[in-house]
Amino acid sequence: MASLWHASLRQNTVVTLVLATCLASAASAETKKEYRFTVGPNASVSVDTQYGAISVKPGSRNQVVVTATLKSDKVEVDKLQNGNRIEIASHLLQGADQQSGQIDYEVLIPPDATLNLRSSTGPLSAEHLQGDLSLEGTDAVVNIRNVDNGHVNVRTMGGPITLSDVRNGHVDIASISGDVHLKSVTGPLVQAKSGSGKIFYDGDFGSGGDYKFTTHTGDIEALAPGNVSADFSAHSVLGQVQNDFPLQPKHSRFSVEAGRSFFGTVGKAASEVVLRTFSGKIRLKQR
Amino acid sequence: MTCSDVERVLPEFLDRAPDGAFPTDFETHVKTCPACSNLVSELKLIASEARQLAATEEPAPRVWVRIAAELRAEGLIREPQSTPARPILIPTSSGRRWSAWWLAPVAAALLAAGAYMVGHERAPQVAKQQAPTTPVTSPAVDTLGATSHSEDIQSPLQQAKKSGKPGASAVGTTVATAVEPGPSAEDQQFLSAVSTLAPSMRVSYENELQAVNADIRETQAYVNRNPGDEDARQHLMDAYQQKALLYQIALDRIQ
């Protein structure tokens, strides 16, 4: 009985040691590096990684701080400063794959800096910024929050895109199959295109902006308060449309097809809203 | 014939007679006008190179040299620095370094092809055509260097014209009834580049490419049945833009 107990104890000890060794080697392979750059006004920051997350938040007005977590020694960080322009890029070495080639970046930038982010896998996130933002991801999830005055440009192949509380800038979003979620997004020009992805808008369409949402097969759903002031045009070539608002009639270049299009104004028609899809459904809902 | 006349009719002439048998008044003007002569020469070169894109894995070195010189002159590219501003994300052999650069002109050509088809295929009466069952594989230059190499970016009407099979039956009412063409030369080259340089991404790109091509076919079939539908034409253009975006994202990632 005692020998059996000892054998079991030995077995558990070996398993524990093996696990601990694996964890220790994994932890030792992961390294964290920090880079600091001093910049002046109107800085430009680019971060480009094949695999890994990039998260950007506002920091001090004259410094860019990049914290990179490298998952293995098969990937390096290339960095370049040229005046106010900072370029950070992951550099895959021979044999790197999606796991070993991953670097996660956490970046602090001056709030008004121009930002360019690229990652195939993502996720990509940026928040509380005021400069122009350009984000590109293949399958990356993109999340942008609390951006004022800057232009926002996002492109993905399949990754979903979420923007919330983005104001006063041009917003241009294009995705091939990713869903697009826009919550409280207003500005002089807001346009989103997705092929098979859906587009959701929840907001009041501001005052005096052009909003244009287009899909091929994806549905478009817009949710607005009853006191919205906008001129609406919606048309689905092959799909159905649905509208909760009492629209005042207006002239449109599209011939009205029952169930496939609606046009009209609500309030003073401060903003123009165009919703177009080839075969998706369009719903304009009142909050 | 004036310079503006030449600019107006040149794409059509190149399309009809890519090797250069132009009408007499056209030839007379071009011979006496250096600007138009240069324009014709350049477009012929572009058309000629575009036709060879599908047939060669690598473009002729002179094409790259010429494009690189133009881009340098315009300050759009710089000479390599000791610390690369844009790293080579996937180390490759020197022979492969530029193997994906052709995606850029292909993406541009897709857009141009889309714009051309949307803008120029406004036949007042589109005869009902039978979708050809024989794949059309030879590339064709539409205009201004825009290429329509693949049948998936050619309308069934164009395909019928090229295959010489004007049919009488209607194009299928949905994409499900349309003939499913194989991938075009560009698409195969595109997928080949993706699988070489970013193998883990191949399935994603392949699926997206199939979806975008299906959208283009579906919209093209609808436009053929409803040539006066401006909104559908715009959706067709959007579908081409989606394909160009796909190529562009791939180009950004794998180069």
Explained architecture:
The complex is a heterodimer of chains A (287) and B (255). Chain A has 2 domains: 29-118, no CATH class; 151-287, no CATH class. Chain A contains 1 helix and 24 strands. Chain A has one helix at residues 2-29; strands at 31-38, 44-49, 54-58, 63-70, 75-82, 85-92, 103-109, 114-119, 124-129, 133-137, 142-148, 152-156, 161-167, 170-175, 180-186, 189-194, 199-202, 210-215, 220-224, 230-236, 241-243, 261-266, 271-277, 282-286. In chain A, β5 (75-82) and β6 form a beta hairpin. The relative contact order of chain A is 0.10. Helices cover 56% and strands 3% of the residues of chain B. A two-stranded antiparallel ribbon of chain B has the order 1-2. In chain B, β1 (140-143) and β2 (146-148) form a beta hairpin. The radius of gyration of chain B is 20 Å and the shape is flat. Chain B starts with a helix and ends with a helix. The chains are: A mainly beta (287), B mainly alpha (255). The A-B interface holds A 48, 50, 78, 80, 87, 89-94, 97-98, 118, 120, 136, 138-139, 155-158, 174, 176-177, 193, 195-196, 214, 216-217, 235, 237-238, 253-254, 276, 278-279 and B 83-91, 198, 200-201, 204-205, 208, 211-212, 215, 218-219, 222, 229-232, 234-235, 238-239, 241-242, 245-246, 248-249, 252-253.
